[in-house]
């Protein structure tokens, strides 16, 4: 069996001036994400799941090396692309498995039914299915933000700026554009760098020039602080 290779994922909290500085430099050497609106910008809405013990939340804040979280993600409130994602971390490496689901399948999951996940092999979402079936795994929080993304395809490098982060106030309908959301801080911006084994030095120097320290910057944890007891 082919070994699954993980990706490195670096995160930083940055301010607006950091953003302008980095963007002005990478804009000349990296490609704007084709999935954006021409400027690489789009809106992400993620619905995160956790068990009755809030294991994913607790493992994240305690820094557990080996952990897994599940989410459903859409873009710009459209149901044209709905992704069910499983993200695992092993030490410094992350690995993400993604599966496109249809709107009716999303509705089934929200009703506590996910048997359609057993129709394909390999059963990459078997743990998610079992958690939904036993009702120990449930939707916990919506997180919504704007992303601006840049790519360097030759190195499989991706740099993103996430801003306008907000969380649903116990609203779990991922398609409810008018649902109640709480802003987590208008000045909060998260810089993410994702790459395989090679991080080009000229881009690394640009990022390190801001003099910021790495942060876990978990959007799930940020979202849960507003409704942890839910």
Write down the overall mean pLDDT. 88
Low-confidence stretches: none
Which percent range fits the helix content? 10-25%
Which oligomeric state applies? single chain
Name the shape in a single word: globular
CATH hierarchy: architecture? Alpha-Beta Barrel
- DSSP, total strands: 10
Please give the count of helices: 6
Quick one: CATH class?
Answer: Alpha Beta
Question: For the CA atoms, what is the radius of gyration?
Answer: 18 Å
Given the helix and strand composition, which structural class is it?
alpha+beta
Q: Which fold name is given in CATH as the topology?
A: mRNA Triphosphatase Cet1, Chain A
Please list the strands of the largest sheet in the order they lie side by side.
1-6-5-4-3-7-8-10
Instruction: Tell me the CATH superfamily.
Output: VTC, catalytic tunnel domain
User: N-to-C terminal Cα separation, in Å?
Assistant: 41 Å
Portion of residues in beta strands equals: 35-45%
Write the element-wise H/E pattern from the N-terminal end onward. EHEEHEEEHHEEEEHH
Total discrete domains: 1
Structural notes for this entry:
This protein has 230 residues and is α+β, with helices and mostly antiparallel strands. It has one domain: Alpha-Beta Barrel (mRNA Triphosphatase Cet1, Chain A). It is 21% helix and 40% strand. It is built from six helices and ten strands. Strands 1-6-5-4-3-7-8-10 form an eight-stranded antiparallel β-barrel, surrounded by four helices.
């Amino acid at each position: 069996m082919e070994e699954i290779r993980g990706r490195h994922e670096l995160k930083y909290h940055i301010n607006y001036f950091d953003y302008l500085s980095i963007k002005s430099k990478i804009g000349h050497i990296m490609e704007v994400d084709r999935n954006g609106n021409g400027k690489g910008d789009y809106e992400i809405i993620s619905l995160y799941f956790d068990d009755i013990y809030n294991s994913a939340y607790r493992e994240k804040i305690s820094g557990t090396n080996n952990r897994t979280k599940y989410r459903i993600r859409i873009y710009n409130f459209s149901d044209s692309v709905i992704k069910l994602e499983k993200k695992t971390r092993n030490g410094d490496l992350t690995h993400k498995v993604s599966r496109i689901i249809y709107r009716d399948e999303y509705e089934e999951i929200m009703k506590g039914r996910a048997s359609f996940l057993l129709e394909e092999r390999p059963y990459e979402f078997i743990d998610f299915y079992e958690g939904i079936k036993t009702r120990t795994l449930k939707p916990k929080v919506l997180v919504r933000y704007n992303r601006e993304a840049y790519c360097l395809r030759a190195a499989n490098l991706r740099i993103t700026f996430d801003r306008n982060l907000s969380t649903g106030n116990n609203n779990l309908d991922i398609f409810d554009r008018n649902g109640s959301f709480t802003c987590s801080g208008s000045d909060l911006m998260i810089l993410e760098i994702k790459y395989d084994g090679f991080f080009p030095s000229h881009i690394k120097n640009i990022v390190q020039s801001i003099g910021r320290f790495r942060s876990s910057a978990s959007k799930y944890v940020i979202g849960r602080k507003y409704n942890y007891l839910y």
